[in-house]
UniProtKB/TrEMBL annotation:
It comes from the Bacteria. SMART domains: AAA. SUPFAM superfamilies: P-loop containing nucleoside triphosphate hydrolases. The keyword ATP-binding applies. PROSITE patterns: ABC_TRANSPORTER_2. This is ABC-2 type transport system ATP-binding protein. PANTHER family: ABC TRANSPORTER, ATP-BINDING PROTEIN. Keywords: ATP-binding, Nucleotide-binding, Transport. Residues 3-231 form the ABC transporter domain. InterPro entries: AAA+_ATPase, ABC_transporter-like_ATP-bd, Motility-assoc_ABC_GldA, P-loop_NTPase. One of its GO terms (molecular function) is ATP hydrolysis activity. Belongs to the ABC transporter superfamily. Pfam families: ABC_tran. It comes from Paludibacter jiangxiensis.
Amino acid sequence: MSLSIQQLTKYYGQQAALNNVSFELHAGEIAGFLGPNGAGKSTLMKIVTGYISADAGTVSVCGEKVTETGLETRRMIGYLPEHNPLYPDLYVKEYLQFVAGMYHLGKQSKSRVDEMIERTGLTGEYKKRIGQLSKGYRQRVGLAQALIHDPKVLILDEPTTGLDPNQLTEIRNLIIEVGKEKTVLFSTHIMQEVKAICKRVIIINNGKLVADSTEDSLLHEVDKDRFGALVEFAGVIVPDRLCSIPGVLRVDPIGKNTFQVTSTTDVRSDIFRLAVETNIPLLTLQQQAQSMEDVFKKLTN
Ligand SMILES: Nc1ncnc2c1ncn2[C@@H]1O[C@H](COP(=O)(O)OP(=O)(O)OP(=O)(O)O)[C@@H](O)[C@H]1O
């Protein structure tokens, strides 16, 4: 097991920022870590990386317990914090050399720095001071410092915040590439990112774990007895006619003669019959799959 989190609890004063959270990740697994603002994501990541301590519970990396003082276990972890702390006066290469020195990379330093500059797309920027870089390039420097010592576990707190669409794709591809051999836990508020990068999804809410599953399972498990259909008629229809179909819970108008129908069973054939009875042709009758946004809202609202 690469990363094992067992019954983690953390209080800030009276507030439980984390309440008995447990999950495990294997090597080669990329997990998206989701939760509303203030759910406890950064707190968990800070504990995993040894920046702060938990009030109860344990974190182990490759079988070794992480503590605030245990430097060897912390060497197995790469961390990109949410507010990527960098030294603006240092040049990119100088900063990465400094980080390589902190990890005592010795003779490997030069080649690792060069490799990281290339892998994180900093080749055109590495001669600049960090303070002169755009936000996206600062994120890349943060990723380069997180990867430089070749950690087994990578903890990325909102790694793609502030990136333009091109940079987003590049950094996502880098995370996918890195995740083939390492364990990656990354937090994000972007649901498409979860779809693009990982199969495993971990969601916390108010400090408690509310989901730990694959994206596919979550989409099926959560509210599996709710069906959604998009219906568009060619003429005016009274919404009450749709509401009277057995099993229909809600009819939301979303455009001219267009409705979002939520029901406990698949009511598409009833809607079709209604169109025939009322002699109003159907232009659209489409079953709608749940999105990760729906699942997220249901689990955290
Ligand atoms: N040092 C601290 N002292 C007191 N409360 C804190 C401290 N750090 C975090 N908190 C509180 O703990 C809760 C969890 O915060 P945390 O930063 O872990 O959430 P998050 O899920 O990362 O949120 P976001 O998505 O907004 O970054 C919040 O209510 C926050 O205000």
